[in-house]
Amino acid sequence: MQPNAYPSPEVRAMRRFVLFVLAFCAIVVLGALLPHSRLRDRSVAAAAQIPGNWQTGDCDDHNSHWGNPHVCQMRRTTFTLASGHLSVDTTNGGINVVGEDRSDVALEAKVTAWGSSESDATNLLNEVVIDTAGGDVHDHGPHENFFGRRGYSVDYHLHVPRHLTAEFHSMNGGIELASLDGTIRFSTTNGGVGLKALSGDVEGRTTNGGLNIALSGDRWQGQGLQADTTNGGVDLHVPDHYSAHLEAGTTNGGIRVDFPVTVQGEIKNHLDTNIGGGGATIHTQTTNGGITISHDSSDSDSDSGD
Fold first, then answer.
1. Which residues pair with 303 in a beta bridge?
2. Full residue range of the structural domain in which residue 91 is found
3. pLDDT digits (tens, 9 = 90+) for 226-271
4. What is the DSSP letter of 217?
5. Do 145 and 244 reside in the same domain of the chain?
6. Phi/psi at 116 (nearest 5 deg)?
């Protein structure tokens, strides 16, 4: 009779016990190693995220962030704009840009992070990276979790060359542009837009937010301005003795002009006319909101002294 090749119940039980012990030991070892690995990766990321050309400092943040613990950090750097083209892109945060007589870009970024605890917020803050290579400024970090209980924002303030080509994009934040000349494009989804003393070929829009536009000088220098919004009002400030072709329209709202203009018929929700001697087109439009067009001598006086 041939011996039975199938192991006895006792042998099978012993094998199962040995496999269980080996699996348990493997789980314990992995459980001990993985946190150290993550900590090491985080420390490397934290050390690598802020290059030597950045300066950091503390800042105050008075936003409640849904009652979550939060931390804030200021980051500053300067970089050259060899191509003459600048792009700034952020998901959560505002963009403020001022043109000056300079050749480089001075960037100040306010980085705010919030989480379940202050340490959680600090860890998230350390994972936020801001890139500036090639004049393409953008931030990236962990995705915000559901209901916004954990996330981050970056607010940018830049001093840039006055003459440049630039694009500015935000999803949740306002955009403020001043003293720029060139081909400028801007867009935001949730936030207001302020434009002051611009020239060149300027075009952009916001979806949920108002437009505040302050013209300067005696005419638009360049191709023209087109600024639109879907849900928000428009305030257009025009210096005395300004010359331009003016277009303004609203679907659900009215238009008010506080100085004499020549039009055919009654101004209701559309205006298309020349002011002064005419010139480049200043176009602004909203779907849901009113439009106010007024003289603002203070802006023209202050800009004439630059």
1. none
2. 56-304
3. 999 999 999 999 999 999 999 999 999 999 999 888 765 567 789 9
4. S
5. yes
6. -75, -20
- Give residue 166's identity as a one-letter amino acid code: A
Question: 291-295 and 255-257 as β-strands: parallel, antiparallel, unpaired?
Answer: parallel
Nearest to 124 by CA among 108, 113, 134: 113
Does 168 have pLDDT greater than 70? yes
Residue 33 above 80 pLDDT? no
Amino acid occupying residue 306: D
What does 86-132 look like in DSSP terms, one character per residue? Answer: EEEEEEES-EEEEEES-SEEEEEEEEEEE-SSHHHHHHHHHT-EEE-
CATH code for position 91 = 2.160.20
**Cα–Cα distance for residue pair 205/227, rounded to 1 Å:** 5
Query: Based on the domain organization, do 235 and 252 belong to the same domain?
Result: yes
- What six digits make up the tokens of 56? 């950091």
Residue 167 CA to residue 87 CA, distance in Å, equals 5
pLDDT tens digits along 176-232: 999 999 999 999 999 999 999 999 999 999 999 999 999 999 999 999 999 999 999
- The 8 Å CB, 24+ separation contacts for 42-50 are 42/123, 42/126, 42/127, 45/126, 45/127, 46/126, 46/127, 49/126, 49/127, 49/128, 49/129, 50/75
pLDDT at 120 over 70: yes
pLDDT at 218: 96
d(CA 243, CA 248): 15
Q: What is the 3-state secondary structure (H, E, C) of 2-29?
A: CCCCCCCHHHHHHHHHHHHHHHHHHHHH
